[in-house]
Amino acid sequence: MTSSFSGQGQNRPGMPPRLPTPPSGWPIGSYATYEEAQRAVDFLADDDFPVQEVTIVGVDLMMVERVTGKLTWGRVLGTGAASGAWFGVFVGVLLSLFSPTTGAWAGPILVGVVTGVAFGMIFAAVGYGSSRGRRDFQSASQLVAGRYDVLCQPRSAERGRDLLAKLAMRPAGSGDGGL
After folding, report:
1. Where does the signal sequence lie (predicted)?
2. pTM attached to this predicted model
């Protein structure tokens, strides 16, 4: 996967390098899902099409937040303890590696875990308590698009459109996953 900050317009005279640039090119296909757009570009690549001239553009962007569960004090403290324990293991291992006493690795790890659990629970409790019930749920956020357009530089757009038309005419399940 390439960076969203790279693009064909980044080397224009007078423009600072690595700034995001609007996409350019002619539309050669439009798809409901990113997976379908990827499949179309993969199809072009399999046919020796110059895919470096192709851009997938997400249109009508929206942020989707999916609620995954209700937050309770038990869940908050448990999650804080677990993340604190992992951090404590990490710190304990580092301390045991640099300990002057050879073979004494269990003590620093145990101290790290106990201290990590305590601090993890404290920080989680403070964070949850300060919200005062305004956000009593867990969620996961995602940026999605309403559709995904495949753009191509004008010199290859006609061939790209023709190839994608062939892909669209294939029956579903014909080896490419079927669009």
Report:
1. none
2. 0.61
